[in-house]
Design a protein that fits this description.
By secondary structure, this protein is an alpha+beta fold. The protein is about 25% helix and about 35% strand. The protein has a 5-stranded antiparallel beta sheet with strand order 4-3-2-1-5, with helices on both faces. A hairpin with a 4-residue loop joins strand 2 and strand 3. The protein is globular, with a radius of gyration of 12 Å.
Length: about 70
């Protein structure tokens, strides 16, 4: 089974794209959020696809310690 998630960097922010739901979510420690439709198109067209580790690094999630 193929991983349904792709990761993008756009304007110095990290995003995760769920290919099953066709939705993009902003990843971040300070803010995680849904992304508006018109911004989703920009990210998919102009964003840089990266691996999960790079997306976690850009978002700051790699610095979180499990409780």
């Amino acid at each position: 089974m193929q991983n349904p998630f792709k990761f993008y960097i756009y304007e110095e922010e990290a995003y995760i794209y769920d290919t099953n739901q066709k939705l993009i979510f902003k990843m971040g420690v300070k803010e995680s959020a849904d992304v508006q439709d018109e911004v989703q198109a920009l990210i998919l067209e102009n964003g840089e696809e990266v691996d999960k580790d790079k997306a976690w690094e850009i978002s700051g999630l790699d610095k979180l310690q499990p409780a």
